[in-house]
Amino acid sequence: MKVLIIKTSSMGDVIHTFPAIEDARHAQPDISFDWCVEEAFAGIVALHPAIQTIHSVAIRRWRRKLLEPGTWREVIGLRRALRDCRYDLVLDAQGLLKSALVARLAAAPIAGFDRSSAREPSATLFYDHRYPVPRGLHAIERTRRLFGLALGYEPDFSRLDSGIAPPAGRSILVGEKTAFLLHGTSRDDKKWPVADWIETARLLVDKGITPVTTWSNDREKAVAEAIAGAVSQTVVFPRSPLAEIAAVIGGSALVIGADTGLTHLASAFGLPTVAIFLATEPGLTGPRGPFSSTLLAPPGKRMMPAEVIAEAERLVERQTLDQAGGR
Fold it and tell me: How many distinct structural domains can be found in the chain?
């Protein structure tokens, strides 16, 4: 059976889909998967070994240039590529009107959430098969249930495995214990104050751990440089392709991150990961992993660096004990 997954964005949503693919691989090994995803996240999808062909879309860019001939050439090229693959099933795991319209391009049966379950009920008008999945569940479990219903198996919820591993890459600090600080995020109200990142870096250095951080735009660069300026042991990794950042994150002893896609990635790698949520509720979309934890700032109060470091130490200890028990 040849299945096309539609989950175009965002990075966290893409990563939340990986456990469902692992369920399917165990339950029905004869299924092959392709994926249609926003071009910015194709490198994340490529981390999963079960994905054979990745079709890139550029919906965000296309919307800005809807009347340009080049946009329609890309859309027509995507439609041709999808139809040439002759899919047995298209699985819209996003439940949005935009994802349903992309699914239609493949000219194959489409499965997705039913009207009460989809994020945008109008998307279900384009589906051939609709399945009820409670909306009050975490996004990972919702996707796992959808895959199970559409593909005919019962997920094993006693296990959670993303199926991905960090890409190979040269360690930037051979032999040193590092902690990656993911301070960048899309919204200002999700950002932890720079002073708290600096204090966190200081506390890490006191414990013999080298802070590492990076940036993707000028505002994030200013924060990274402020941390390094205050705590000289901090390593600022230059702006780099996603695969290189993923490799450096994967080589870290622990990760401390804001509500951002790379924090989800660290958690999916199985790293000790502390996610700091300041303005969003992590209950349905927070990182999930064997050694991850989400700290939610109390209303009207600060999330203190000492609390974050204490949680990080607890996760590292738990990982150490787990690895010792598995020998």
Answer: 2
